């Protein structure tokens, strides 16, 4: 786009106040800049009305082609209200109710980037999904539920585009009895976990040759050194000895999520200018 004289797209990022959350930054701004995307970044403000006005203003501004809300927001902010204040056509992470509805109906839409990133990894590594047993651990609205829909969805959408994965999908969550959870995991060909519980799944629990896509991000402290490190929901060492495919944390799903966000931003920009 830029090489053909089109100005680099601007993306508005509403990010969390530093120190307000234990999560790690979703999007390294240097990655975005290397992709030719310019940013205007706001740290989370605590006035809901002002945030709505801000998002409405940028929604009308032609210069801005993408808007992203970094979740979770502080507890005093209403995530649904904030996400639905984003113009759907500029909602590059697919959290607006309009995009969610279109996504659920297998219609073309901007979709949540983490689930799309997981699907991209599955496709690129040739992991079989047709008729396979898939287990999604976690039912969050921005990761777990969209992942389950993509995994079980019809492989061909009505518009002819590639759709879901045609897997038989089970969702496990905090109220799934432990014995049932272990049963589902043991029979799973594909496991996607996004719970924020380190060590939730170990190598002794899984089927040999299965695929594990670990979306969990947990910061744990080494009691011996006092230093922290990032880990996923799975015990990587034991699972890696049994699984056929496994993503590390960090360095697995995260970079692909960022890549999908860049792709979504460029798609929104191209659509805005009919490129």
UniProtKB/TrEMBL annotation:
One GO term describing the cellular component: mitochondrion
TM segment ranges: none
Gene3D superfamilies per record: Leucine Dehydrogenase, chain A, domain 1, NAD(P)-binding Rossmann-like Domain
Domain Tetrahydrofolate dehydrogenase/cyclohydrolase NAD(P)-binding: 112-272
A single BP term in Gene Ontology: tetrahydrofolate interconversion
Pfam families linked: THF_DHG_CYH_C
InterPro entries: Aminoacid_DH-like_N_sf, NAD(P)-bd_dom_sf, THF_DH/CycHdrlase, THF_DH/CycHdrlase_CS, THF_DH/CycHdrlase_NAD-bd_dom
Reactions listed under catalytic activity: (6R)-5,10-methenyltetrahydrofolate + H2O = (6R)-10-formyltetrahydrofolate + H(+)
GO molecular function annotations of the record: methenyltetrahydrofolate cyclohydrolase activity; methylenetetrahydrofolate dehydrogenase (NAD+) activity; methylenetetrahydrofolate dehydrogenase (NADP+) activity
Coiled coil: none
Keywords assigned: Hydrolase, Multifunctional enzyme, Oxidoreductase
Domain of life: Eukaryota
CDD domains: NAD_bind_m-THF_DH_Cyclohyd
UniProt protein name: Tetrahydrofolate dehydrogenase/cyclohydrolase NAD(P)-binding domain-containing protein
